[in-house]
Amino acid sequence: MARPLVAHIDLDALCHNYRLACELAPNSRSAAVLKADAYGHGAVPCARALQALAPAFAVAAIEEAVKLREAGIETPIVLLEGIFSADELALVDELKLGMAIHSQWQLEAALARRPRCPIPVWLKVDSGMHRLGFAPQDAEAIWKRLLSAPSHVTDLHLMSHFATADHTDNDYFRRQHDELLALAARLEAPLCLANSPTVLAHPEAHGEWNRPGVMLYGSDPLEMSCDASRRLRPVMSLRSEIIAVRELESGEPVGYGGRYLTPGRSRIGVVACGYGDGYDRHAVDGTPVLVDGQRTSIAGKVSMDMLTVDLTHLPEADIGSEVVLWGISRFGGELSVDEVAQYCSTISYTLLTGVLPRVPRRYNTAQSA
What we know:
Blueprint: E1 6-9, H1 11-24, E2 29-33, H2 35-40, H3 43-50, E3 56-59, H4 62-70, E4 77-79, H5 89-94, E5 98-101, H6 104-112, E6 119-124, H7 136-147, E7 153-159, H8 171-187, E8 191-194, H9 196-201, E9 209-210, E10 236-248, E11 253-254, E12 260-261, E13 266-271, E14 288-291, E15 294-297, E16 307-310, E17 322-328, E18 334-335, H10 337-343, H11 348-353, E19 361-363
Parallel strand pairs: 1-19, 2-3, 2-9, 3-4, 4-5, 5-6, 6-7, 7-8, 8-9
Antiparallel strand pairs: 1-10, 10-13, 10-17, 11-12, 13-16, 14-15, 14-17, 17-18
Helix pairs in contact: 1-3, 7-8
Enzyme class: isomerase
EC number: 5.1.1.1
Protein name: Alanine racemase
């Protein structure tokens, strides 16, 4: 019998969330972001589920694109960080990829090598994130250079990334947005600006293309939820089982360092899941879990292969009881990965992408795909 920890991936929910992104931006095309192995969900199965819906996929690096092409995915793919060396341009050409250009050396490399077919290019502008991209005042000259090389470049777009689209105070977002709109108007450039928070909460910033990412996997990226984000459905349900139960007296320590002391006579359940599986070791006592669909919480530090939960108020729970670390229970309850992330002082992105390869993924059939 296999270890009971499994990441269940609901591909129907993935397709639902993608359709929601499209519904929110009916005048945009949406490139489904599959970077970091589809945020830990498995890029190839997610791409196969979405390929009949999405006109393009986006990944961070060429290795991720190669994996999709080798799996038979023919949908257009854009490299959000572009190339990391000029040698990669041969693969970009061979695999018919699009790419971001965010720095001078990438620009010179792209214009120095004539591809078999012109490469779709997304010119990255730094609108205030100060991470990747050309300064807005330099973008116009670079845009004109790219336009003057039709044998090298095609389907040219202006792209940027908002630093604060998820925040409730959006003065900085509005300044970024206004500057980008003015630049696009001068260049007559089609725009790709909207990440997940922007798709959900800022319709004024929807461009010709949007880039929904974490929202596709059911996580709400907004500081304060909105009606649209409450319609997201969780895609990953991380489920395990109780593998042992301990009956303890009051004042007994549980786990490494004895951080948790039983407040009275207690039942403690041992769960097959730990930081060696990617569960966050910083989870505090009180971090919620579901046992047979009922809410309880972690009691004691997370170990490499196990964690412990309080079963005192759940007398029916026993060895073999289902434990949901986040996602949907077979018994009907639901626990948001966003809530778990708050207890771990992190974000859902970290939890989802952190589920390690030793945790098997099981996929439903995407009936809606």
